[in-house]
Structures are given as structure tokens and as C-alpha cells.
Design goal:
dTDP-4-dehydrorhamnose 3,5-epimerase activity, RmlC-like, dTDP-4-dehydrorhamnose 3,5-epimerase, globular, mainly beta, EC 5.1.3.13, six-stranded antiparallel sheet, Jelly Rolls, binds dtdp-4-keto-L-rhamnose
Length: 189
Amino acid sequence: MRSQKLAIPDVIELQPTRHADERGNFAETFRDDWFCSNIGDRRFIQENQSHTLRRGTIRGLHFQAPPAAQGKLVQCLSGAIFDVAVDIRENSATYGDCVTRILTAERGNQLWVPEGFLHGFCTLTDDTVVAYKVTAYYDRSADRGVRWNDADLGIAWPDCVEPSLLSDKDRHLPCFRKMQPYFTIGSAA
Ligand SMILES: Cc1cn([C@H]2C[C@H](O)[C@@H](COP(=O)(O)OP(=O)(O)O[C@H]3O[C@@H](C)C(=O)[C@@H](O)[C@H]3O)O2)c(=O)[nH]c1=O
């Protein structure tokens, strides 16, 4: 497994090592010991999978409020996504900044999005399957978000975005400025 810190260093891209042979390849896509030593002391307790039918669909931008805050380890199992993490830690030097990464099933790369970040993605292919492990259980009452195209965030979404391909919930999310502060660096996740 290789890791690469991105523009916001707490957001990390992971690249599992693939062992190729005449049959195809094999990769360890997650190891608890490697993750704890190299990324952070976390336990993943839920795994999610979404299948998105159409290219250009957006899911996000989401987070769960503390104490149900989730770190997410995201990967694409089929197709490709434009993945986004936005820093919402109030005392962070990169508060409001975003990191974007293309994750593809072909490459098998992953994105670690820690607690204190909004997360969302746009599908770059039809029939996209995304899987992600999370560090806290889903809690509907803690489910929060920010509108995907908030001008203050200025995320450079890909041209294929179809604003109509959005859940009702995501269409009605509040803007970034109205978001209550939930996270500070150094506070318990
Ligand atoms: C996230 C989640 C949803 N659900 C249910 C609630 C609802 O009925 C249905 C669909 O939920 P949503 O519309 O919230 O699904 P979706 O828009 O795909 O939400 C996801 O978006 C990405 C970007 C994330 O980062 C995830 O953490 C999650 O928020 O699934 C669960 O049962 N468990 C879960 O963990």
C-alpha cells in the first residue's frame, strides 16, 4: 500500500499494491495494522456500497455531526468518480478548502476522508459502484450536509455534472455559511 498526502494533508490517497499474474491481479485493499500505523488510529465498523445508474449524478456534500462523526475510506468498485472532501474544522488553516480526486475501479485508488470534512462525489460513468468503510455507525439524526454547488466552496465540478440527478435531500441542503460549527482540530472525533 502506498499513501500520498494531498493539498490538505489530513486527506490521503491510498494505492493498494496489485500483484499481477496471468489470471489477473490480487491486492490487499485494507489492513487494520497498516492503516493504524500509517494513517490514523481508527476502527472501521460499517461498510457501505452505493450503485449510481447515471453519469453526472452527485451525492453529497455530507457529514455526520459529533458524536457520530465518521471518517470514510472511499473506493470505486465499478466505473469512476470525482471525489470531493471539504475541510469544515473551524480552526483549520484550510477551513472551507476542498480536495478533489478521481477514483477509478481500474486503478483501485482510495481516498481517506477524516472526521471534520464534508464528503461528496460526482459519477464519471454510468453504473458506478462506490464502497466505503466508516468509523461510526449511520445515525439519521446526525446526518448533515451542505449544498454541492455552494458558491463559497467554489468546487470545480466536472463538466458532466447533471444538476437534475440529485436526491431530494441533497437538493435542499443548506448553504455553507449557514452551517453550525461542529468540528475543531484537536477535539475528539
Ligand atoms: C448513509 C446511509 C444511508 N442509509 C439509508 C438512508 C436512506 O434511506 C438511503 C439513502 O441514503 P442517502 O440518500 O443519505 O445516501 P447517499 O446520498 O449515497 O449518502 C452518502 O453519500 C456519500 C457522499 C457519503 O459520504 C456517505 O456518508 C453518505 O452520506 O439509505 C442507511 O440506511 N445507512 C447509511 O449508512
